[in-house]
Amino acid sequence: MGLADRLFRRPQTKMSVVVAVYNTGSYLEPCASSLLGQSLPASEYEVIFVDDGSTDSTPARLDELAAKHPNVTAIHIPNSGWPGKPRNVGIEAAKGEYVYFVDHDDSLAPEALERMYDMASRNHADVIIGKIAGHGRRVPRTLFRQNYEACTLETAPLMESMTPHKGFRREFLNEHHLRFPEGRRRLEDHVFVVEAYLRAQVVSVLSDYTCYHHIARDDAGNAGFGTIEPVGYFGNLREGIDIVERLTEPGPLRDLVMRRWYSVEMLNRVGGKGFAGWKDDYRRRMYEEIRKLALERFTSPGIWEHLGPQHRVRSVLLREGRYDDLVRLAAWDASLVLSARLDDARWKDGRLHVSATLSVETGKGDPALTVSEAGELRYEGPAKDVPEQARVLSPVEEPRVELLLRDRETKVDRPVALTVSAAPVGGSGRQPYRLVAEGAVDPGAVGGKPLSAGVWDLFIRLRDWGAGNNVTRRLGAVRIEGLETELEPAVVGGKPLVVVPYWTEQDNLSLDVGQKTRSLGERLAGRALSATVHGAADALRVRVELPVHVGPGAAPLAARLCAVDRTSGLEVSAPSRIEAAGSVAAIEAELPLLAAGLDLAVEVPAGRFARVNDLGVTAEPAPTA
User: Fold this and answer.
1) Long-range contacts of 280-284 (CB under 8 A, 24+ apart)
2) Of 123, 208, 117, 201, which Cα lies nearest the Cα of 166?
3) What tens digit of pLDDT does each residue of 110-157 get?
4) 382: helix, coil or strand?
């Protein structure tokens, strides 16, 4: 069908959401609620639940939803054992211009369908990918750094995203007879998605709005979490390879697609903690299947020439059949830790500025990355286990460091990019390769929105450092002298938002947002504060300076000033607010004129107002004219 036909024959139903369901239990409710709460009018999208022979209460609940909501359909089929069959049934039943696949234990953001359809429609895309957020699940990151109105495999890192959580133009699926492999198997989504990528003329990627929440279940019941059977798994991978070889010619495009499988599905499984920790029988079976596939189908040097250093090392050992060396190297890799020294942490202009020095070491303290006097960077694997031609590397050009704010309750990460520079090294010979990471986080606008109320723990993560997987550690326990005292609390954002930094029992840095466990009153209690009092005819003007950082543009924080007349014991208070006066946070109020001696206190909000006693503030009124 031509473009003109596609433009003028669009169905009324814009999006068909297909959900393969099996014994979902309580996880169905948040999924269904997110699908029914879309900003797209109900008349413009449909939700198709395909129940794969559930044996719990799920079928009855689906029928209830279908009876109550006209745009919901419930289809029941005999158990097939895997999502491929129910997804295909959903495609056949769909009426929408685009078919979007959602897992039954995940959820969509409120504007996901509307925003994705708008982008797909204006670009006449065959595939639309909305930004995915992971909750205990790994998700693409490089792909979602920017929007791609129209892209292909060669112009965007699409191979990062191989899950089916995408929208596909329905006529595109039918035109190319694209369906999921059925039955109990692995990588059915890879087989489907890679063919769609290779056949698509236009793929659109929406990155400026989180559309999809990919959730790890508490009961570890997500499909695909079970143990891999090597023969079956890599047999299924061969089906994807067959498609790539059928639809591409030897060359850069084919190498690009194959490189993703070679690095993620194969080389990742012959190294690191997983490979080191497996029982030898299983580990050897995994190794043998991977090596057989590598020598059989991954034969182009273009596949491994552009790999990162660690994967290049594993590739050499794998192809040379050096199983014992791979095991020893995996144990060494598994011991790698990120060392992070917090050099500075302070509030400035409503943002928490941090600086840290990083290096990567083994558990014994040996450097994993070193730099020579000539500036040559080396990945320091055990010398006898790593071929010299694989060890000598070029300097890492763009290591990335992120400050991660992790919600202690939900485990959701909010990353903030830091700037990175190489720290100078002294002495002669080979030295540890150190990085200095600096940046700032605005709690009132992390990723465009404020942090939610709760405790946020601070981590630092090194990515793209040239020698393997990302490495992460808590921040704060190792810090320079002078950062021992508590950071002052802050008032930021338009709500306003109260942020109380503190050192944990393990001496790491955390932020209490919204006074959930640490209150502003507790932090101020016992502090010696500076007060000035000016007398008038019948009142006193009182100003108390507070050790609180107030960010520019922050809404004033409600508070009260209280005064007790030492002679009569009479207490009076006046409502006021904490705000910035230049660079100083202060609270001011006008109090009735009492006797000569006043004891002052401040009341600040912590849900309700909490009295801060024993502030050590004593003020004498200035003589009146």
Assistant:
1) 283/327, 284/323
2) 117
3) 999 999 999 999 999 999 999 998 887 888 888 998 999 999 999 999
4) coil
Tell which wins on pLDDT, 608 or 306: 306
Q: At what angle do helices 230-247 and 188-199 cross, to 10 degrees?
A: 10
Per DSSP, 408 falls in state T
CB-based burial label for 137 (10 Å; 0-12, 13-18, 19+): middle
Residue 250 to residue 78: CA distance in whole angstroms: 42
Which residue has 């509307």 as its token pair?
A: 114
Give the dihedral sign, CA 484/488/492/496: positive
Whole-model pTM: value is: 0.73
Q: Amino acid letter at 342?
A: L
Three-class DSSP labels, 151-212: ECCCCCCHHHCCCCCCEEEHHHHHHCCCCCCCCCCCCHHHHHHHHHHHHCCCEEEEEEEEEE
Residue 232: phi and psi, rounded to 5, are -65, -40
| Mean pLDDT of all residues in 605-619 | 51
Cβ neighbours around 297 below 10 Å, total: 19
Report whether 59 contacts 51 (CB < 8 A): yes
Q: Cα–Cα distance between 386 and 318 in angstroms, integer?
A: 11
Please give the mean pLDDT across all residues of the chain: 85
Cα atoms found within 13 Å of the Cα of residue 115, Cβ hemisphere only: 19
Q: Which residue, 206, 184, 187, is CA-closest to 195?
A: 187
53 in Cβ contact with 62 (< 8 Å): no
Matching residue, tokens 């955390």: 510
pLDDT, tens digit (0-9, with 9 covering 90-100), for 331-383: 877 787 888 999 999 999 999 999 999 888 777 777 777 766 666 666 666 65
The label of the residue with tokens 């109990």 reads: 184
User: CB within 8 A of 418, min separation 6: which ones?
Assistant: 354, 401, 402, 403, 437, 438, 439, 460
What angle, 0 to 180 degrees and rounded to 10, lies between the N-to-C axes of helices 309-319 and 323-334?
160
Q: DSSP secondary-structure letter at 94?
A: -
